[in-house]
Amino acid sequence: MNEVHSEAVELAWSALRNHLQAGERTERPECWPEELSGQAGVFVSLKKQGRLRGCMGTFEPTQRDVAHEIIRNAVMAATQDPRFPKVEEAELAEIEISVDVLTPPEEIEDAGQLDPARYGLILKSGWRKGLLLPQLEGVDTVEEQMAIVRQKAGIVPGEAVTMYRFTVTRYR
């Protein structure tokens, strides 16, 4: 996983501030880095005092470009994550943002092709899907990674799944 500081995080901040302070939608900047101009899945994570405060994303593109994925998912992370109350404007000074841009998911045959420090994981069984980003604190083994994704997707242990892995570029 690559980790860089860039316009991706600045755009997420802009989208979050514009939404919380003025209820406005942020537009894609005219000058936008070439590496972020295409389409990709994107996750935006919000942390407060080192703890998750919101996270939303897409594992495949749903918007016309990465910039619009970032804008949409930054606002969704702050306002639509069902695990948390909506982020309030007063919290902004304590929020840290990271943006993960995903590579296209690659189907794999077995868990031996996974490494939670390098690859994110998607499990699919019928209409149920679960995803976990790579390099998460407390997720050190493939077994832990798979158990968390199964739980998120409502897939019971032993149930047949299709597995996909992906990498991310993380922007902070």
| Spatial separation of the terminal alpha carbons | 13 Å
Query: What percent strand?
Result: 25-35%
Structural class: alpha+beta
Shape: globular
Estimate percent helicity: 10-25%
Q: Biggest sheet: strands, sense, closure?
A: 5 strands, mixed
Stretches with pLDDT under 50, minimum 5 residues: none
Number of helices: 3
- Give me the side-by-side strand order of the main sheet: 1-9-4-2-3
Mean pLDDT: 94
- What is the CA-atom radius of gyration, in angstroms? 16 Å
The ordered H/E elements are: EHEEHEEEEHEE
Q: How many beta-strand runs?
A: 9
Quaternary state reads: single chain
Task: Please tell me about this protein's structure.
The protein has three helices and nine strands; from the N terminus they run βαββαββββαββ. With 172 residues, it is α+β, with helices and mostly antiparallel strands. The strands form two sheets. Strands 1-9-4-2-3 form a five-stranded mixed sheet, with helices on one face. A four-stranded antiparallel sheet has the order 5-8-6-7, covered by helices on one side. Helix 1 crosses helix 2.
